[in-house]
Amino acid sequence: MSEVYLNGEFMPLAEARVPVMDRGFLFGDGVYEVIPVYGGYPFRLSQHLERLDRSLQSVRMENPLQPDAWERIFARLIGSASDLDQLIYLQVTRGVDRTRNHLFPQGVEPTVLVMAWALGPRDPAISGTGVAAVVLEDNRWHRCDIKAIALLGNLLLRQEAEDAAATEAILVRDGLVTEGSSTNPFIVQGGEILTPPPSTRLLRGVTRDLVLELARGADLPCAERHITRDELETADELWICSSSRELQPVTRLDGKPVGEGVPGPRWRQLDDLFQDYKARLDSWGKRV
Ligand SMILES: Cc1ncc(COP(=O)(O)O)c(C=O)c1O
Question: Exposed, middle or buried, 7 (CB in 10 Å: 0-12/13-18/19+)?
Answer without folding.
Answer: middle
